[in-house]
Amino acid sequence: MKTIKIAGVPEHFNLPWHMCIDDGEFEAVGIDLQWTDVPEGTGQMLREGATDIAVILTEGIVNDIVAGNNSKIIQVYVKSSLIWGIHVAANSQYEKISDLENKKVAISRMGSGSHLMSIVNAQNQNWNLENLQFEIVNTIEGAVESLALEKADYFMWERFMTKPLVDTGIFKKIAECPTPWPCFVIAVRTEVLESEPKIIAQILEIINATTEEFKQIPSIDRTLASKYNQKLEDIQEWLKSTNWSQKQITEPTLDDIMNQLLKLQIINKKIAASSLLK
User: Fold this and answer.
1) Which terminus of the chain is more solvent-facing, meaning fewer CB atoms within 10 Å of its CB: N or C?
2) Chain centroid to CA 31
């Protein structure tokens, strides 16, 4: 049995992985795939060797590899955009996106999706990027506390995962900001890719077979709603707008992402798109 460590966010996008693990599909081919939930983001775990594979936000791993993370993107996992909700405390005086100019944004960590997308949003609004202020909160629970104590003014996170907080009157959503690229990719440490190519190929084969048919699984909407504390109608809307992928990301797409990150001053250089890929 070969042990492979994998990490990702504890969100509904990753239910296919848990289903394959629970059903023993990896174990059946001699792979002990050990999943770790990482609410703060997975790039750091790849850098430190704490995980072998990460299911990770595209902009996060591109930024990380450009900065020296010795990993490669092996496939797109979710090809649709991630819709980031822009949230304030429910009793906040802020009512519209323009109210947040020059205000402090809560982020999980520097270099995370919540950090990078706050810069994308500021650019979309033609705000001065130099005036952006950040409060590191680590997790969504940290963001709830930070906004309640007015340590930060707003918080960006995937809109469906934060909707229960809106429904229960903790957050107020005032706008949305979609990613202008496929939202999740699968990345692997280069060392693991070189030492275990067949194992990685088997893992992709198993997860791809599941994601290809995921939406057709009987009552999958009810399973998701129950497991992730969501309203059934919200999950059904999310399923309609979410599309998994079984293909590699293209070099032109990576070039476009790097151009945008460069423009936003998130990265300070471009590298060959081919060097980000397996």
Assistant:
1) N
2) 25
Below-50 pLDDT ranges, the chain: none
| Residue located via tokens 């490669």 | 72
Per the structure, the complete domain to which residue 8 belongs is given by 2-80+182-276
Examine the domain organization and report whether 106 and 158 are in the same domain.
Answer: yes
- Distance from C-alpha of 166 to C-alpha of 256, rounded to nearest angstrom: 34
Q: What is the enclosing helix (H) or strand (E) of 22?
A: helix 15-22
Q: How do residues 153-168 score in pLDDT, each as one tens digit?
A: 999 999 998 999 999 9
Query: How does DSSP assign 153-201, residue by residue?
Result: SEEEEEHHHHHHHHHTTSEEEEEEEE-SS--EEEEEEHHHHHH-HHHHH
Number of domains, the chain = 2
Nearest 5°: phi and psi at 87?
A: -120, 150
Tokens of 266: 């998130």
Domain closes at, from 160, 178, 196: 178
88-133 pLDDT, tens digit each = 999 999 999 999 999 999 999 888 889 989 999 999 999 999 999 9
* pTM listed for this prediction: 0.89
Residues 71 and 190 in one domain: yes
